[in-house]
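Side project, low priority. Logging it here so it doesn't get lost.
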Amino acid sequence: MYHSIVSLVPKGADLLALEVEELAGVLLTHLNSYSDVVGSPVAQHGRINRHDFFNRLEHTGHQEKVNRALLEAWSWLQGEGFLVTDPGPDWFFISRRGQRLKSRAEFGAYRKAALLPKGQLHPLIAHEVYPAFLRGKYDTAIFEAFRELEVAVREAAGFGLQACGTDLMRDAFRPAAKNNQPVTPGPLTDIELPIAEQEAMANLFAGAIGFYKNPQSHRLVPTRAEEAAEVIVFARQLLRIVDGLRPKTSVQP
């Protein structure tokens, strides 16, 4: 089915309010729909003529600004490998990857997936976190990531199920001294580090669990995919630290 730019975003002002990546999704959806059009001067033999596309472009209001915005989106699609130059003046074709993204929803899912590649996630959080992230359930994705961090610390430290939250983190990473007096360090404490850094490690893990896993803090959970991805990557880094500090006798899941 053919989708005109106007049918996708009826008002010029709304189109101009889109970020270039969002507008690129609109443009790609429109360009992909030319495959259902016969005899168009814009699209012929699987190729699209940029000159004819912009000469025939119509929108409701702000036409000059709309054209410039769409040209920015066109350039973005080129840079990301969705549009490829074809021999001949001003001809392009949609790449195989671009042809797979037929709708704005599919394009949006692709953008989210690119922000948080599944292969780069820690195995403990990939199964639960990745699907929630793609669905836009950022609070769920972040909670699951830090819940798995809590479980990993508990198991690595050899604690029972009753150990949880910030107390768990402070016990697991207890510094080897308090008030300049030696104490028994936590099972995950790196005693080769200076005491100040041991304390910093305990604060890092306790603060992360207290802030991101505590349900009361979810009012502050990021609502943008980019920001949520950064928080999940932070959880991944903490899990990798746990892996490195895990006692040799501990069985890694």
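Brief comment: Residues 249-253 have pLDDT under 50 and may be disordered.
Revisit when time allows.
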